[in-house]
Amino acid sequence: MAEGLIHIYTGNGKGKTTAALGLALRACGHDLKVILIQFIKGSIAGEHLFTSKHKSFKILKLNDDDCFKKSKQQQKKEAREMLEIATHILTGKEYDIVILDEIFMAYNMRFITIDEIINLMAIKPSQVELIMTGRMAPAEAIERSDLVTEMMMVKHPYSRGIKARLGIEY
Q1: I want to staple 4 with a disulfide (CB 3.0 to 4.6 A). Which of 96, 123, 128, 132 is the partner?
Q2: Whole-model pTM?
Q3: Residue 130: left (phi > 0), alpha (psi -120 to 50), or beta?
Q4: pLDDT tens digits along 106-138
Q5: Is residue 40 part of a domain?
Q6: Could you give the CA distance from residue 2 to residue 5 in angstroms, rounded to a whole number?
Q7: Is residue 146 assigned to a domain?
């Protein structure tokens, strides 16, 4: 692969993880190896079921539990573990694309620091594409990235009481 870039998908709108998954799907079509590391996520979703059947795309999450039902202390512990794993994976050069899903949520919850995010960006091998998602991406990360897309919510069915739907939102 040519020089790998750093992408950020941020904003209050729906679609940050979905955009990263779309890029991952395209990359797998060209036989690139992709890993999505989930920092803060709920229970098993459709993407987990899909990747269990496709060897070139892996999703890494510590367990199948809904993290939002855990204590802040347990969430922080798991986010710290994922940071260590992400560091190891980035330096391991096994994957062409590394997606750090909801890393900015972990940052905004004060589970990881901006210095740790900047370090991940700095240790990224030149050929690896790094994608980071989550609301409220910090300015320091935006400044150091190559591509930033902000998802803006204009209208959302949740405001009408429509809950997340199987196969659409999860």
Answers
A1: 128
A2: 0.86
A3: beta
A4: 999 999 999 999 999 999 999 999 999 999 999
A5: yes
A6: 9
A7: yes
